[in-house]
## 1
Amino acid sequence: MDEGTPIFLKELAFQQSHTLRARVANILGLIDILDIEQQSIESKRILDIIKKETVQLDQALKKSIKESVNQNKNFEKDSDSLSSIQSDLKSS
């Protein structure tokens, strides 16, 4: 991986956790508001499908964010280990 990878992973995690999840949270909030209103059976069925799909999208985003954060931690740990080895070699 190149040196830009940690920055990319941090930016990706930020985008996922703030930008994308904010939109999903907004959609879920709107669905809750619509859920209160009187609707036809067909409209209610469609709203339930939209809510189910949005919840699944939210779960997928949370999983992706967690994986990005873990990948970044692993990269930083590997990078620290490599730096330590390089320092040891230089001082030998």
## 2
Amino acid sequence: MIKCLSKAKDKVKNFVVENSVAFRRASIGAGATALVVGSSLVSFATDGATGGSAAATATTILQDSVKDISGQVTTFIGNVAPSCFVVFGLILTVSVGIKFVRKFMK
């Protein structure tokens, strides 16, 4: 019986060691989710006297923030994309040039 429990203990220990990164990520995600849910419940609980307007206000704020974030991301991509294309073109040109020179050096 004790050998059986010892083997089970070893199997559990090996499983935990092999999946320690996944356990850490899951616990961090669960903690973050609990914080988000807890803070949203508190904000709705404090505004309980107004009825359904808290949900409507939260929805409006969320929509406005998503629109703002999407606008900022679009602007960022528009500003960064030309530079990225230039760098990518230089890398491509240099790599093709090196292959071309190596081909003729042989």
## 3
Amino acid sequence: MLQTKALPRSLTNEIFAEQFDELHRLSRQMLKRVTLHLSEVQIALRYEYIRGAILHILADLDPNARRMPGLEDIQDHVSDSALIDDIISFCETGFSSRSD
């Protein structure tokens, strides 16, 4: 997915949009129901920030890449479940904070 987004092609973009645009729209609608303090723009931006963070983590966790910049010394000792817990916490914090 990261390569698809990093190296866009018109046909690839069309296929990607057909597969995922509705899911993203529904996800933002669901988030709107639980984050009444945020505007639609803030919800969309925070949703995109989280998607980007998750894509990078997944790419770094690829067994062929397994490199998290700045964490090389500990990455072999961080479990996938610990990373998932951190991502969830990151998401909750991002959506619970107020917009300025």
## 4
Amino acid sequence: MDKKEVTNTEFIAMLERINAEMSSVYEYLEAREIQLCQDAGSEDELLFAQYTMRSLEEAVMELKTEVSKYICIFQRLAHGNLG
């Protein structure tokens, strides 16, 4: 299998695209939470929808934060500034 070398700039661009996609996922989850809450037939369903969707939203934001950290690291690497 051929391996393709990826430049630092390409890798940063890839991470930035992932971050942008996670923003879209987060927006979708927020909209879905609203819909699920509106469709809830009972207090238990409402609480479950809120808890589930907020947990997913938090997970997406945590991933987004981690990817942002790597973007910063690789940008600093690209500029020779890790100190």
